[in-house]
């Protein structure tokens, strides 16, 4: 459920090339009617995790450290782990800053790729090696209405990748998120793989004044596909949240 950019056309063929990446479906979080249950959980077809919604101009950054899960499914089954700021929440704007790790099932195994994105920019980092069970720290900052910074660090290896991000449209800085997302090309969703439980530790959003916001103040979103709930999100002690495939 986030707004990720174009995978090269050969990804759509039976033999998959991983030089680019498809868009996620984060736009569904705000563009399509939400199915909110009596317990306050929002069900949608693109995103499972936490969303912090506050006033315009509130947020400066979002951070989370996650253990990369093992995934399984048919070839091309894809999901992404992401943190980000905004994304089609600003009136008349698709401004977004985000970063994460794709997990894509290929004929030879699972391919994990670090990526960065704004509304006008997408980049895969092929130099940052990521494997299942690695501890990855994700951080996205919005410096002002049009620029920010993102860092993806592999705590197991000490390697990291970073990008300065530019948004062509103005950011609202009113929503931040962390979680697991489905991946799409146009209106077609790639198969959603099963995955080991994904736990974000130090899952925290920070305001422009430095105030931290933990999971207890966030909205919970779960993925529901064709009437079947696919995930279960649980807020844990301190600044932790777990996303389980069910």
Automatic annotation (TrEMBL):
<protein>
    <submittedName>
        <fullName>Peptidase G1</fullName>
    </submittedName>
</protein>
<dbReference type="Pfam" id="PF01828">
    <property type="entry name" value="Peptidase_A4"/>
</dbReference>
<dbReference type="InterPro" id="IPR013320">
    <property type="entry name" value="ConA-like_dom_sf"/>
</dbReference>
<keyword id="KW-0732">Signal</keyword>
<feature type="active site" description="Proton acceptor">
    <location>
        <position position="181"/>
    </location>
</feature>
<dbReference type="GO" id="GO:0006508">
    <property type="term" value="P:proteolysis"/>
</dbReference>
<dbReference type="InterPro" id="IPR038656">
    <property type="entry name" value="Peptidase_G1_sf"/>
</dbReference>
<dbReference type="GO" id="GO:0070007">
    <property type="term" value="F:glutamic-type endopeptidase activity"/>
</dbReference>
<feature type="signal peptide">
    <location>
        <begin position="1"/>
        <end position="19"/>
    </location>
</feature>
<dbReference type="InterPro" id="IPR000250">
    <property type="entry name" value="Peptidase_G1"/>
</dbReference>
């Amino acid at each position: 459920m986030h707004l990720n950019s174009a995978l090269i056309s050969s990804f759509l063929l039976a033999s998959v090339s991983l030089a680019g990446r498809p868009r996620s479906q984060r736009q569904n979080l705000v563009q399509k009617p939400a199915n909110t249950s009596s317990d306050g959980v929002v069900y949608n077809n693109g995103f499972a995790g936490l969303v912090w919604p506050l006033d315009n101009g509130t947020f400066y950054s979002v951070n989370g450290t996650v253990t990369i899960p093992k995934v399984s499914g048919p070839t091309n089954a894809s999901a992404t782990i992401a943190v980000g700021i905004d994304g089609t929440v600003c009136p008349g704007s698709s401004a977004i800053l985000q970063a994460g790790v794709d997990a894509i099932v290929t004929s030879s195994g699972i391919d994990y790729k670090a990526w960065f994105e704004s509304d006008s920019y997408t980049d895969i980092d092929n130099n940052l090696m990521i494997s299942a069970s690695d501890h990855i720290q994700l951080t996205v900052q919005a410096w002002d209405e049009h620029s920010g910074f993102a860092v993806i660090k592999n705590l197991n290896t000490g390697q990291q990748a970073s990008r300065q991000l530019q948004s062509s449209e103005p950011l609202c800085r009113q929503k931040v998120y962390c979680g697991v997302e489905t991946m799409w090309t146009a209106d077609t969703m790639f198969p959603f793989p099963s995955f080991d439980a994904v736990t974000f530790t130090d899952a925290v959003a920070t305001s422009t004044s430095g105030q931290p916001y933990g999971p207890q103040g966030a909205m919970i979103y779960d993925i529901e596909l064709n009437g079947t709930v696919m995930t279960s999100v649980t807020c844990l002690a301190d600044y932790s949240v777990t996303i389980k495939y069910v």
